[in-house]
Specification:
single chain; about 120 residues; alpha+beta; 5-stranded mixed β-sheet; globular
């Protein structure tokens, strides 16, 4: 699939098919355990069922209807402007095409629009 940055489409509300798409994306990296893959998919499922009341926010990056990357993030409880970046993943076969940067930039824009001024990312060991 050849594409340019102008072909990228961002979506912010998860749909039921995103659960399987996220599971496949996270598995494709080879970085995460099956338990972690399950947690990533579970957060998307919560987003589908509960919407914004889940406390999780999403960015889905699509090209021609295929999810190639995503992020999950949310406000840090008991703070006024701090947010956590829980997940940011790009399909392993599409790495090196600046898709991760695009997902991060869109995530940062969403946090800023919501009044956030800090975005924290912790990494697993």
């Amino acid at each position: 699939m050849g594409f340019g940055l102008s072909d990228l489409v961002f979506r912010h509300r998860p749909v039921a098919s995103d659960v399987a798409a996220v599971r496949a994306l996270v598995q494709s990296t080879g970085f995460f355990s099956e338990e972690e893959v399950g947690i990533a998919a579970e957060l998307v499922e919560l987003g589908v069922k509960q919407g914004e009341s889940s406390g999780y926010h999403f960015v889905f990056l699509e090209v021609e209807g295929q999810v190639l990357g995503y992020s999950t993030f949310g406000p840090v409880p008991a703070t006024t402007s701090s947010w956590d970046l829980y997940w940011i993943v790009v399909d392993e076969s599409k790495r090196g095409k600046k898709l991760g940067r695009a997902v991060l930039a869109e995530t940062e824009a969403r946090v800023l629009a919501a009044g956030g001024s800090r975005l924290y990312a912790d990494t697993a060991g």
